[in-house]
Amino acid sequence: MSLPGLSLLLQSIVSGILMGGVYSLTAIGLTLIFGVMRIINFAHGSFMMLGMFTTYWLFILLGFDPYLSLLISIPVLFVLGLLVERFLIAQVLNAPEHNQLLLTLGISLFIENLALFLWSPNFRTLDVSYLKKATMVGTVMISFPKVIAFLFAILLTGALSYFLKYTDLGKAIRASSEEKEGALTVGINLKRIYYVAFGIGTACVGAAGTLTATFFYVNPHVGGIFVITAFVVVVLGGMGNIIGALVGGIIIGLAESVAAAFMPGQLKQFVIYFIFILVLLFKPEGLFGRSREE
Amino acid sequence: MTKIIVTIAVGVFLLILPRFMGGYFLHLITMIFFFTYLGTAWNILGGYAGQFSFGHAAFFGVGAFTSTLLQIHLGVNPWIGMFLGGIVGLLLGLFIGSLTFRYGLRGPYFALAMLAVAEMLRLLAVEWMAVKYPLGITIPLKGDSLLAFQFTTKMPYYYITFAMMVISLYITRTIESRRMGSYFKAIRENENAADALGVNVFKYKLIAMAISAFLTATGGTFYAQYYLTIEEESSFGTSVSIEVLLGPIIGGAGTVFGPMVGAAILEFLSEGTRNFLGGYSGVHLMVYGAILVVVIIFLPNGILGGLQAAFRKLSKVW
């Protein structure tokens, strides 16, 4: 391979891994919600969009630093998640799976088009000088906000894994996801576990929204771009597997950016869907999953 | 007997209705018929056989593109194109179905796989159109002609969608009254049990898929001939997949007239919101979302499903 070809490949590998971190970040909340509640949450992308707009408006109206707005977007989305679970999702936990899917679809249609009504379809970006920084390492350009997002994804995966493993609440969440009846028998309040888990999942994607807004445009439909990729990552990493989501995100980020180097336009997305279908068909338990005992 | 009389009366009423309506209402009712047709097509697979598709835009788009491209490049008559588009949709359905059903994709997994297929086709269409038809594909005008499937007034489209709707409802009715309908429902309610009882699950899922895909694809051709222009988003876009399934879900999936009830409610609502809050795009989708949430929580089997249950309760009380 010629030198420019090699540096192009290197560049796409680095960008791919970094973008993969962002995909992991969006997928972690989704996989947590699925793992605990067995719900495929179509509204996940809408929550992400709300996280992005929170950061955007805090910056525009109050001059908040984008990273500082994490302190607001995370709790705001956590509370919103609690409310949505408590008043809507909780009503269909025993309904057929497709009705759960349709409910979250309805929620996302509502939120996205409300945002469209309030904030117009305009594409907005955060105009902050330090966010546009990029460092050259040899011939490879590394964007500052993507590195931060990537590091945050690793941090979040670690924190969430620790939380699930070592805290009482985390243990209760794991118990409820693995053995519903058993959890009930030992006195775990499933209802409470569900809405806390949903809140945490939504808070995660709120953080993902804030961090993505630092380098990506913000508009009411932006969640749709990320949510389908997040589904792919979740399935690839094994539904409910948080570390799987981190690894799956990086794999998808890599596949996408390497495909983009060789294919025109949006066909890189095509590659992702293709991987998705292959995984669904041949390895639905995910790359690292045990096959589900049913 | 009363059923037949009511059916005939409603039929005659709908046939003479256009004489008393302006273009605006004609368009509205035409769209209700059209979405009833599409919803009915979806309902056969999603409502009766219980295979929830989130990607019916794949069939819709394939139908629209097949007939339009054949017409433009080879001069194929759009009516024949409609049939051929249906066949291409059917083959696509069999292909997807044989893969997904063979490997046992169920429930949300099947829904997501369908979504991915539709998105893949959309991306291919986007890339291909960007090179060949950056401004979308326009069907050349030929004036008023039944043969060319083009009209300068709305009325002929009204009658065409009316006929399509009646055919689709008749097909559903026929399926429901035959053994096939019971097989579909058995698969929907409990696939393993149906299999254990000797229903060829794979075969009947494929049949449901084939019928549904064929009808949806012919709907795509109608759409192309109605607007005389197609582009990738309104053919393969996720919003198409969503609008196709909303009608039957809200009206009552797995019932003959559910898609019609749903389509009527949704069309009137979307027109209403457009009149009150015109100028804001997407407001009708916000209303759709709210309706969907309310229906799923309070009427999980749709409006007709809810009514049926209520009647059953009432008749027990009496």
If you had to describe this structure to a student in words, what would you say it looks like?
The complex is a heterodimer of chains A (294) and B (318). Chain A is mainly α and 294 residues long. Chain A has a single domain (3-282), classed as ABC transporter involved in vitamin B12 uptake, BtuC. Chain A is built from 11 helices and 2 strands, in the order ααααββααααααα. Chain A has a two-stranded antiparallel ribbon with strand order 1-2. In chain A, helix 2 packs parallel to helix 4. The radius of gyration of chain A is 19 Å and the shape is globular. The model of chain A has no long low-confidence stretch (mean pLDDT 88). Chain B has 318 residues and is mainly α. Chain B has a single domain (2-317), classed as Orthogonal Bundle (ABC transporter involved in vitamin B12 uptake, BtuC). Helix content of chain B is 78%, strand content 1%. Chain B is built from 14 helices and 2 strands, in the order H-H-H-H-H-E-H-H-H-H-E-H-H-H-H-H. Chain B has helices at residues 2-16, 23-48, 57-74, 78-102, 107-132, 155-177, 179-189, 191-196, 201-227, 232-236, 238-251, 258-276, 283-298, 302-317; strands spanning 137-138, 229-230. A two-stranded antiparallel sheet of chain B has the order 1-2. Chain B is globular, with a radius of gyration of 20 Å. The model of chain B has no long low-confidence stretch (mean pLDDT 91). The interface between A and B is large, with 44 and 40 residues.
